[in-house]
Amino acid sequence: MPATALRRAAPPAHPVPLTGRARLVPLGVGLLVLVLYSWWSLLQWHRWEVPSWDLAIFTQLARSYAAGDGPIVHIKGHGANLLGDHFHPVLVLLGPVYALFPSALTLLVVQDVLVAISAGALTGFAVRALGTGPGAALGLAYGLSFGLQAAVAVQFHEVAFALPLLVLALGCLLERRWTAAALWAAPIVFVKEDPGVTVAVLGLVLAWRAHREADGERRPVVLGFALSAWGAAWSLLAVTVVLPALSRDGRFAYADRLDLAAAAADPVGALVSLVVPGQKALTWLTVLAVGAVVVVRSPLALVALPTLIWRMLSPNHGYWGTGWHYSAVLMPIVLVALLDAVLRLRGGRLSRPAHAAPALALVVALLLVPGRPLADLVDPAAYRPDPRADAKAAVVAAVPEGASVATDLTLLHHLVPRAQVHWVGSEGDPAPEYVVIDRHGAAWGGDPPVDVADWARQRYGTGYIEMRDEEHLVVVRRRG
Length: 480
Prior knowledge:
By secondary structure, the chain is mostly helical.
């Protein structure tokens, strides 16, 4: 497509602010997304669900920041610096919020708010470019997308902060507001160590678009290359310097999750491994379906490649599928790229499928809802309370404020705000004042300890006495 055609397809460089009813559409979509995900998070909290230890880790981090103690998270090992595990300085923002509302539930609500803000922002860009109907459809397709649902279901992760930043950066790039795009993209490097590579690719796309669409102006092109260098430099610095320096063993803990040297030595095998086994191919196809297929006509789709490639090249099969939070950052990229593709295809031979693409994306999102978290909202079984809820609450209350406690998964989230919590599986932790064990918990794998006091004595080298044993929830206290 000639550069002149590209300029005709793109939104104006200084978009007219939304007025009247059009202004209410992004607000309505954002509020709807906030209600749906907050509702689901509260329902999950009511059921005492614990998908993993991650929420407890981030809650302890927020508590530590709120107290002015830095990124110390004892759940990862006594005195462990969480900035030696992943590079996420943006999470210091959790400290003030947690100080006002000291609960693990606070982090779930923060994540829901960030998702809703990103949905409202994306809808705003889409409404300005396409009108209220298609814009609302595109915003809802994003808000209901499988990647966001999966991220909310596995509870809080740092990637939630990348969502509004990505939407705003890509949306401004689409509207040829080059400086604004770069400024929104730049902080993404402080979300985690790998999004810096995403920012690097985004910078290259910005430079290319500016070269074609900025009427010969060089400054946006230079800005794009500078953004690319910024992103690549922060990822490299985080992985090779910051994380090893702050980790307990002097190395990047996840270095074994991706072997770039092996991929370079066997490029054909690496290429095949991007789609084999079938779980990987299914993820590619699902992402493509979210973008109504026409997403491939947008260069913005290239920004999704770093995340997809490192996931598929990793030997860790947990990265390959559509579950967990790993696809969350793909959703803003794919849906804004879809918007760009629609604008590019209007007026051409593919104008009709382009016109239908926002509605098709919404249909795909709705078809993927069954079996995913939001489907719980209309399932009566999902509203049944945890039969052990009273016993769990009593155990949490039995641990005194400020006490040190080692525990497994079941009550980890709920104990963090009131106690100094350690993980029972960590080696080298000091003997805690209390040990809380769920014999029915998912953390044990094999047979849980029958005599918890004796198990704690053997593990920590000091005596313990049993305080309570109810509904297979056991609390023991250190002697003396």
